[in-house]
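Researcher: Quick one. two chains, 270 residues in total.
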Amino acid sequence: MAKRAIWGALVVLLVIAAAYASFFVAPTENSMGEIQRIFYLHAASGWAGMTAFFVCFVANIFYVLGRKQKWDWIGVSAAEVGLAFTTVLLITGPIWAHPVWGIWWTWDARLTSTFILWMLYIAYLLLRGMLEEPDRRALLSAVFGIFAFIDVPLVFGAIRWWRTQHPQPVIMGGPGSGLEPTMRKVFFFSVLAMHALMVLLLSERYRLEKTRDEFLEVQREAEAG
Amino acid sequence: MKNLDSIFAAYALGWGVFFVFYLSVARRTSALRGEIERLKNSRGK
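Model:
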């Protein structure tokens, strides 16, 4: 309990420090101005969300191969956490876009593939809600989760392969791309903070699955005797 | 500072989503813990 509280407090401090750096350490971007500071939350949330979906993907593969319950728990936990981060990505994007592009949303390859990703993982959770038998639920959702992850490389590649309204990549974007050194440091610090938050939320969500299992066990015992 | 309202909205909504998610997980866990205790107590009687 004390360990969890300390870990939680450290993550909160890290997130606050990242926000401070985004507002007061990172320089103002030349063409967009202050509104570009949303980038540090927007892109870092996107990266943490994709990592959570990758964890879900790996857990789904391990579940299909080994049928161990813990992989199902990790899979559903990572899917929910990934959805939370992708929701932040989809909320902060239009708020940033509106003053810069003059529109809230456009159906370009990056935005559309991200929206589809969000819907795929909502479908993953809806599918789980519809299946009552635990083994069948775990297997079918794992197979669906493996399929859903195919969209993640599409989201990554969309701004590299196609011309989009969304800006071209500033990280891993090839020659001519990149961030000013202080912006780059602040961005990677924000990525670290968002990943720490992702791990915290994932461990809490996993604990919920363990508690649910304990509840079902006690319920079975109560019904039996 | 131009567009301060948009920046504030983005950060407030972003943190709001994480906070609501954390709260929902904590509430679901706590409800299950309560049910476990209730079942254990009813078996003990």
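The interface with chain A takes residues 1-4, 6-7, 9-11, 13-15, 17-18, 21-22, 25-26, 28-29, 32-33, 35-36, 39-40, 42-43 of chain B (CB under 8 Å).
Researcher: Thanks, that's what I needed.
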